[in-house]
Amino acid sequence: MKNTRKPSGRPDVLKVLADARPEELDPSRLVDPARQREDLARIVAGSTDGRAARFLAPRRRSAFRPLGAAALAAVAASVVVVSTVDWREPVDRPTAQPPSSAGSDAPGEGADLRVDGHIELLSAARQAESAVAEGTYWQTTTRSENVDVAGEEGHLFAVRSASTDEWSVGVRPGTGSLEVSGLDSVTEPRTAADKDRWRAAGSPRTVEIEVGKKAGSGRLVTVIGTRRPMVMHTNVDDKIYAVGPDNVTYKDLRALPSTSAELRRHLERLYARDNGADTGTSNRSAWMLRQAGNLVTMPVKPAVRAAAYRVMADLPGVRVAGRVTDPLGREGVGVDFPISYRGPLGTTRERLIVDPSTGAMLSDVLVLVDPSARAREAGLAAGTTVNYNATTRMSWGERQITVPGNARS
Amino acid sequence: MRGRRVTHAQRFRDVYEECYPRVLAYATSLVGRQVGEDITSETFTVAWRRVRDVPDPALPWLLGVARNLVRELRRRDAHQYLLAAEEAQRISSGARTDAADVAAEVAGRHDALQALAGLPEADRELLTLIAWHGLSAREAAQVLDCTTATLTVRLYRARRRLEKALEAAPAAAPEPEPEPAPAPPAETPYPSHREGAPA
């Protein structure tokens, strides 16, 4: 370092830092003509493929588009999703099984309890209409879990990562928005059998999991055990949520149309802006369902929340299933996305679960419908819930949430 | 024939060719190589869709998009983000390279990376945009979406904190003659573009 001193004798720290740049971050080492060409071809040819289900891109450079697309929408948009495929319900398929990780077989439950889910969803809409006054912070608490496959070929096991997230959005001028994620965060073998296989592998503290990517798949390292929580400021000035391609203020949110016809048209316009060329009815329905599902979790006017449920109920290709159980054991109505997703665990399908008696969004779950060979080997059968976000609290608060002392930013 | 006019498609290809490795390097510094590749791909997907809006130079704009995409990933999938960010941290702290190379030259580098790792996230982000990704203060301001004036102040403070951290670095460990380390030409300005980006 001593050779980087300026004539004054003080080291130019930026120079020192520049020289210390790790090789992995040296652009000249990252040139990969074959990969770049392949990527370029994909981008120029059909850039819309899979995009809507993955990253929702910022519309303006300055527009941090953080959020709305998030809380309940997390799973399908996960980076593990490689591509979308049309989900076609087999004609002779009986009522949907509750996508609960435990009782995926639950024989008999479907037929007996089957009710007209569509009507129940509209009942949720009515319930949503009677809601609360305004406050200062709109706060949601969610419990989430994600399942991955780890280990070496022939000795694979499943790991689950679970945590609690708190998100508190300030809606009054001068208030901020904070998200604390990863509270009680833990990663561990999923079942007793997985634990045995993990032990047989020498109880490694870090394991590699496979993640899906645009081209092929990659590997990430995960640590077995607990983690510190993470804090993030989620607002940009007075922009507090994303609705479609836009970051919106609280005022914008309160100005959303409150009849289902107008709200649908509003969302359709946003879809057109967000996606340019139409990418098919299924994709559009999926996009609309995600947006409507997001709106329900935001501090919109009760009439808007109700309209969002009505929009969901009428989307082409979206199936509303009768009573289903969410991962926390709560009963609700299932709203199935019209497309399924392919990832390293196999083909998965997403479902929102709504409580028709309160109009509350309960969960967003991702269920394995066609496990990959790896997933099968790790004991993940069709019907297993491989990712969920369950909302356990959604209400107004007057005080900002506290950040745990051990949280990292 | 359209004369010498560059079409949007050609312009996009040029920008892609020129900036791809640098966007990937930036994304890798945030989320590691695996997820970084996807972020890079998404960044250029956005650029292609909005090719008319891409300014010249394009790099700060592209890094701004990549940064937004990472924030969005973080908001949307904290679990995946965390794993990816931990991978990035291993890279940025030199944990990935140092083990293989115990040369004396590495000691200084190690100190610098340790000092950096101890700074607040906002400082790290700003300092590396300039020192590692080769941006000017004005360009870094574009990426971080603040004014150049604000950035200058922040940069001044971040530099001071890095200096302090470096001074506090374990000078205790007697460095075995670090002098022979290849000294870069003194005139190289720190936001050097020696990464090979076309001038």
From TrEMBL, chain A:
Q: Which UniProt keywords apply?
A: Membrane, Transmembrane, Transmembrane helix
- Annotated TM spans: 64-85
Positions of region (Disordered): 90-112
- What InterPro entries does its record include? CU044_5270-like (IPR047789)
Say yes or no: keyword Transmembrane present.
Answer: yes
What's the domain of life for this entry? Bacteria
Q: Does the keyword Transmembrane helix apply?
A: yes
Protein name (Swiss-Prot/TrEMBL): Uncharacterized protein
Provenance organism: Actinacidiphila glaucinigra
From TrEMBL, chain B:
Pfam families attached to this UniProt entry: Sigma70_r2, Sigma70_r4_2
SUPFAM superfamilies documented for this protein: Sigma2 domain of RNA polymerase sigma factors, Sigma3 and sigma4 domains of RNA polymerase sigma factors
Residue spans making up a coiled coil are: none
Gene Ontology biological process: DNA-templated transcription initiation
| Ranges of Pro residues composition bias in the record | 173-188
Q: Which UniProt keywords apply?
A: Sigma factor, Transcription, Transcription regulation
Which residue intervals make up region (Disordered)? 166-199
* Residue intervals of the RNA polymerase sigma-70 region domain: 16-77
Q: Transcription regulation as a keyword?
A: yes
Q: Which GO terms describe its molecular function?
A: DNA binding; sigma factor activity
Q: Where is the RNA polymerase sigma factor 70 region 4 type domain?
A: 112-162
The answer, when asked if Magnesium is one of the entry's keywords, is no
The UniProt similarity line reads: Belongs to the sigma-70 factor family. ECF subfamily.
Write down what this protein is called: RNA polymerase sigma-70 factor, ECF subfamily
Q: What is the species listed in this Swiss-Prot or TrEMBL entry?
A: Actinacidiphila glaucinigra
